[in-house]
Amino acid sequence: MHHQFLSARNAVLLALAVAMAWLFILLNILSPLEVDSAKQVYTAPIFMNH
Hints:
- By secondary structure, the protein is mostly helical.
- The chain is 96% helix and 0% strand.
- It has 1 helix and no strands.
- The protein is rod-shaped.
- The protein starts with a helix and ends with a helix.
């Protein structure tokens, strides 16, 4: 019983760690694209208002 609980907890922690790693990798891949698109979208209205 106790060993099953530990293995289940380890499996959950492993799944969380893998999910966090994938999110980190995806954010690193997508963040430059998002920054570039955000610059293109937001700079024009800001300069037009000023």
